[in-house]
Amino acid sequence: MKLTSYTNYALRTLQLAALRAPDLIRVDDVAALHNLARPHVVKIVHQLGKAGYLQTQRGRGGGFRLARPAEQIVVGEVIRLTEGNLDVVECFDSETNTCRLLGVCRLSAKIRQATQAFMAVLDEVTIADIAANRNELLERISA
Questions:
Q1: Are 52 and 68 contacting, i.e. CB atoms less than 8 angstroms apart?
Q2: Rounded distance between C-alpha atoms, residue 3 and residue 12, angstroms
Q3: Architecture of the domain delimited by 5-142
Q4: Consecutive H or E run containing 54
Q5: Cβ atoms 91, 97 nearer than 8 A
Q6: Which of 47, 56, 71, 82 is deepest in the core (most CB within 10 A)?
Q7: Segment (H or E) for 6
Q8: What is the largest CA-CA distance in the chain?
Q9: pTM reported for the whole predicted model
């Protein structure tokens, strides 16, 4: 399974906010750190803010920070938000499926099982977990 770069950077944005908590983070800082276009980061921050993961502050001296403790932000939930549909193969979507093997295909059953296992692992991980090695991460991003 492959996640989009959008999801990767959404998680990195939350991770950075956890590392720098309770300070505000600027969109420009995230864009520079990850070599991203500013509008891309703005879109990520906006979505995470609307979903209640980030608290945003507009204007001069503005930025964003975590809206709740990092221990309460589950990586699997963020992935579901940013990825949307996690249908790995066509036959998982009843509206677009054209596969004639639906219901008898053992491959699709195993792919569904694998996707569920993948997400189950990520449902056990929080933003606090991915920011736990704070000193190493901060050292790496300040280099």
A1: yes
A2: 13
A3: Orthogonal Bundle (1.10)
A4: strand 54-57
A5: yes
A6: 82
A7: helix 5-20
A8: 59
A9: 0.89
